[in-house]
Amino acid sequence: MNYSPTLVLNSDFRPLSYFPLSLWSWQETIKAVFLKRVNILSEYEYVIHSPSYQIRLPSVISLKQYVRQAQAPAFTRFNVFLRDSFSCQYCNLKFPAQQLTFDHVLPRSLGGRTTWGNVVTACQKCNYKKGNKVLNLSGLSLRLKPEQPSTWLLQQNGRAFPPNFLHQSWRDYLYWDTELEK
Fold first, then answer.
1. Which domains does the chain possess?
2. Is 101 helix (H, G, I), strand (E, B) or coil?
3. Is-contact 58 43, C-beta < 8 A?
4. What is the pLDDT of residues 160-182, one digit of tens each?
5. pTM of the predicted model, to two decimals?
6. How far is the C-alpha of 140 from the C-alpha of 87, rounded, in Å?
7. Helical spans, DSSP H, in the chain
8. Which residues have C-beta within 8 Å of that of residue 102, sequence separation ≥ 6?
């Protein structure tokens, strides 16, 4: 049962977040059900028992009250990587997060600031090659101009990185608005 998380959807039936996927433990889920804060949309085959009650463990729930998403995402290393789809913005290759760094397009030593518009995802090789140089002297070029992403963009990018565990009952709720045929 400890490996039976519940997919949490907002009241509009969209996940609260895609990366990381909005999941609750079975304990959090049962508490929310008893407090009548959620609707049960799908269930596991497991049953939770108490001395006077039993309930099938929910696999998908939706919140009864809509939770507004933040307008501007936090500036974090992870969100920079997510904005750039875990791709080096110089060589355009994808890497696992632990093999990525972030690079100041205009180096800090030359007045560059740590902002959405000056920080990009870089692999270690490209970051070392660029070093403390301005872009046009480094021999590298940017794939995309860095800018502050919207929460929507981060959500869309996060959908490309599904979690290791996807229960069958979640699939309709995670991909209900994706194109079925091309």
1. 6-69+162-174 (no CATH), 77-149 (1.10.30.50)
2. strand
3. yes
4. 776 666 788 887 787 655 554 55
5. 0.70
6. 15
7. 26-34, 77-83, 124-130, 135-138, 151-158, 171-174
8. 77, 80, 81, 119, 120, 121, 122
